[in-house]
Structures are given as structure tokens and as C-alpha cells.
Amino acid sequence: MRRPAVRNPYPERMAIPKLLTGGPFRFGFVATLGVLLALLLGLAISSLATALTLIFVALFVCLGLYPVVQWLEARKFSRTLAVLTVMAGFVLLMALLLWLIIPVVVEQLTELFTYLPKGFDQIETQDWFITVNESFGGALTPAVEWLQKTASDPNTWLAIGGGAFRVGVNILNGTFNVIFVAVLTLYFVAGLESIKASVYSLVPASKREGFISLSEEITKSVGSYLGGMVILAAMNAAFTFILLSICGVRYAGIMAALAFPITLIPLVGSVINLVLVTFVSLFTSPGTALIVGIVMLVYVQVEAYVLTPRIVGKAISIPGSLVLIGAMVGGTLLGLLGALIACPVTASILLIIKKVVVPRQNLV
């Protein structure tokens, strides 16, 4: 016998959803399917996390390079020639950096692993360490002995790297990821206009004009910001290398290579690099560390108040508190990459709120 349909006792109110009229078994079954589908989708996204991250990196690099294409087009370059020029320059720059940096970094890493046990021995003979150790009643001696033993044990470095085989696998994966990002960036640069046109065509015609205006503003702001930050990071890395080389600090190449990605982090990156290079300079002498620290502190001030306003300008204007919060959240989710892209993502969200959400609220 067919069960009669459940009637709504309150016809003037919203009708009861059809799902709720099929009984508890049907509702529970559909709800369970929804939960399972959500879990499978989350698992798929988790499995694709590395690939999605690389695609995201390539897109951000593309946005950083695209203002150069537009600048060349303003100089009477055809679009094809401008894109080809940027692509060729990007490939040459990547090849030049790898050719200059990798041999130096490999050589100095080898020297560093060899020097660390001897370096800890030399610390114990320096006057500043003897004075500080005596003031603490010899408390630093056991710590230095433990560091000497740990640094001289090859198993320590294998454990840090996850074993020799894992280190090799990580190097190969890292090399493949760099090549993948470089190639994908070139494709994005070449086809960015067609990609944007395809996305714009999916937006309803009534809202397309506002969507295009907002998207172009975000793209321009993010591109200008990323390009400026890369220039500032390169200048900071070059200054770090020159300063440490002049002061006779060993491993200047490694510190410069580390300074580039570190100083890309907004607000705190330059300060982290200052602390790091000052600490490494202690292995040379306290006087050298003091000089390096003072000079780097002056450079950080010049970078913050002179170079950043001129190079980055007002491409992205957000409160400093939100920059720190965004960097912390991004770093927690995606590590160093999340900290690097936190500022442009935060600025994009604020721009959407300002251009879309606030005007709608004012109409209510």
C-alpha cells in the first residue's frame, strides 16, 4: 500500500524539504554518503597537496613576471616578442643562478660539515667563551662537549636527512620540482591572457564587468608586490654575501643563498637573516659578529624605510598586524611557502571585502 505524502501543517511557512519526508533511513543514508564523499575529497586533496602547491608557486611566479611583459609591450614590443623575451630571460636567469650558486653551496656545505667539530673546539679557546663560561660556573662546557660529539657523528646528519637514500631521493624530487615549476611558469606566462579570458567567460554577463575589474586589480597588485619583493630579496642576499666576504666570515655563499628565501618573508624575514648571519659570525670572532650585526641592522633600516617604499611602493597596503597573522597562518599550513604568499593572499582577501562585501552590506 502506498504511503500518503506528508502534508505541511503550516502551509504559509517554507515547504518541508523532500529529503526529510522520506523517513529517517533515507535521510541517514544520504547524509552518510555526503560525509563519505567529503572524506574522499579531502583525501584526494591531501594526496595532491604537493602538486597543488607547485601549481600555486608557478602561478605566483607568473604573476611576478607578467608586469615585465606589460612593461615591454608599453615599449613597442609585440606581445609575442615580449613573452618570448621574458621567457628567455627567466630561463637564462635560472641557469645562471644554478651555475653560480650550486658549486659554491656544495663546496661550502662540505667545508661546513668538516669544520663544525673543529669550530666547536676553537670556541672553547676563545676569550669571550672563557669569560662567559666562568661567569656561569662552567655550565657551557658540557653543552659544547655534547655539540662536539653530536656534530662529529655521521649518523647525526643521516638521521637529520632521514638516511642517505632518503637524502638522495629528496634531492632528486627537489630538482624535479624546480624544473616543473620553471616549465609551468613559462606556460602560464605565455597563456595568461587566454586563461583569464576563459575564467571571465564563466562569470554571468551581469557581473562580468565588476569581476574583471576586481581580478585585474588583484593581479596587478600581486604581480607588482612579488616582483618588488624578489628584487629586495636579491639585494639583501647580495649585500649579505659582500659583507660577510669583506669581514672574512666563512660560508658567505651559503648564508647569501639562505638570505634570499628568508628575506622574502614579509616584515620578519630581514630580522631573521640579521640574527642568523650575526650568530654565524661568532664562529669568526665576537668583534666580527658585532660589526656584522651593526651593519646588517643599518641595512635593515634602510631597506624598510628607503628601498621598500621605492621598489614595492603601494602595490599592497595592509596593516602590519594582519601581515604577521597571515604569515603565521600561512607558515603553519604550508611552511615557508605559506609565509611567502601570506601577504598577497591577505591583501587579495581584504580587497575583495572592500570592493564586494562592504558595498553589499551598505545596500541592506
UniProtKB/TrEMBL annotation:
Q: Name one GO cellular component term.
A: plasma membrane
Its record classes its membrane topology as:
Multi-pass membrane protein
Provide this UniProt record's keywords sorted from A to Z: Cell membrane, Membrane, Transmembrane, Transmembrane helix, Transport
Chain ranges passing through the membrane: 23-45, 51-69, 81-102, 178-203, 224-246, 252-276, 283-302, 322-353
Q: What Pfam families would the database entry show? A: AI-2E_transport (PF01594)
What GO biological process, any one, is recorded here? Answer: transmembrane transport
Q: What is its main location?
A: membrane
Task: State where the protein is found.
Answer: Cell membrane
What InterPro entries does UniProt report for this protein, alphabetically? AI-2E-like
Protein origin, superkingdom:
Bacteria
Q: Which family does it belong to?
A: Belongs to the autoinducer-2 exporter (AI-2E) (TC 2.A.86) family.
Q: Please report the name of this protein according to its UniProt entry.
A: Predicted PurR-regulated permease PerM
Q: Which organism is it from?
A: Herbiconiux ginsengi
